[in-house]
Amino acid sequence: MKLLEDGVPLAELSIERIARTAGVGKATIYRRWSGKEELFVDVLRAAEPVDPELPGTSLRDDLVALLESLRRRGLARRASVILHNVHAQMKSSPKIWAAYRDTVVLPRRRLGLEVLRRGRENGELRADVDLELLHDIVVGPLLVRTLLRPDAGLPDGLAEQVVDTLLQGLRPAP
Amino acid sequence: MKLLEDGVPLAELSIERIARTAGVGKATIYRRWSGKEELFVDVLRAAEPVDPELPGTSLRDDLVALLESLRRRGLARRASVILHNVHAQMKSSPKIWAAYRDTVVLPRRRLGLEVLRRGRENGELRADVDLELLHDIVVGPLLVRTLLRPDAGLPDGLAEQVVDTLLQGLRPAP
């Protein structure tokens, strides 16, 4: 984090430099992380808000918790110059991006799919739509706002508003 | 397009080089485009599928036409190495990205908002949700698939499926 705060670009971070800054030997680092990519993803995870506890009370409550955590992550990324730069740079480093995808993005997606699967089994969700597509429908609006529209608002209550609108549908109530 | 096909990076494209390749003088280029950014965005627009004609028969049909055009643009971007590279490079050129946003992204967004506004006035859309948020809800799933999940499917019928699911809502039919 210190090196990132000092503005060292991702490409110039090496295990050697990290070990030197931390005042430890390289072997100490390698005992815990197999490479720079794995270490880096752990640093990034530590800087982001933790993953949500799902209340498990209803499909609606679990979806709100998932989207609220996306909203908070978006706010954190906007507030922290480090997080913002690191995410931007990560895209041009395929190995780090792959490590981040495997250890952060895909587990979150599996959790979301699990919530939807449970909701469908409980009869809280219509049964005729592909779960993968439902997942994109549920996370889409928040991902658009946090990743593609950096100037769009992320107000309190956005997660509830999106989930309730999606559950009820866009047609006027009959 | 010839220079992009030859793999010339965006940063090395200059009006001078474009004029030389086209066998014309620089003045000929400047008569039509005020700079490299404007020319480039026109090239990009010419390479992408044209914007959709809206049928205007119903909110549903207009939304399907809008999402179908997003789907086709996503397919075109995946099929064309040039389009793919150019979009990736564009992100690191703030001036070109701003020109693309102003002349391509924002007009499309205005068109989408206009469709939603008309639908709300006609009573085809619930009246209690912010139009900006509704727009993110409608385009979110397609943007997630085309821009953030390059391996996700973009099958025929996806636009209809998304629009019908959103209009009806995720709850099971009563």
Q: What does this protein structure show overall?
A:
The structure is a homodimer. Chain A has a domain at about 55-170: Orthogonal Bundle (Tetracycline Repressor, domain 2), CATH 1.10.357.10. In chain A, about 70% of the residues lie in helices and about 0% in strands. With about 170 residues, the first copy, chain A, is mainly alpha-helical. Chain A starts with a helix and ends in a 6-residue tail after the last helix. The interface of A and B includes residues 162, 165 and 171 of A.
Please outline the helices and strands.
2 copies of one chain form a homodimer.
Chain A: H1 2-5, H2 15-22, H3 26-32, H4 36-47, H5 59-79, H6 81-90, H7 94-121, H8 131-148, H9 158-168
Helix pairs in contact in A: 2-3, 4-7, 5-6, 5-7, 5-8, 5-9, 7-8, 8-9
Short descriptors:
mainly alpha, 68% helix, homodimer, Tetracycline Repressor, domain 2, 174 residues
CATH homologous group name of the domain at 53-168 in chain A: Tetracycline Repressor, domain 2
- The CATH class assignment of the domain at 53-168 in chain A is Mainly Alpha
The CATH topology name of the domain at 53-168 in chain A reads Tetracycline Repressor, domain 2
Distance between the termini of chain A: 54 Å
Radius of gyration of chain A: 19 Å
The assigned structural class of chain A equals mainly alpha
Largest interface, by Cβ-Cβ below 8 angstroms: which chains and how many residues each? Answer: A-B, 36 and 36 residues
Uncertain runs of chain A: none
What average pLDDT do the residues of chain A reach? 90
Organism (chains A, B): Streptomyces prasinus
DNA-binding region (chains A, B): 14-33
Pfam family, one (chains A, B): TetR_N
Domain HTH tetR-type (chains A, B): 1-51
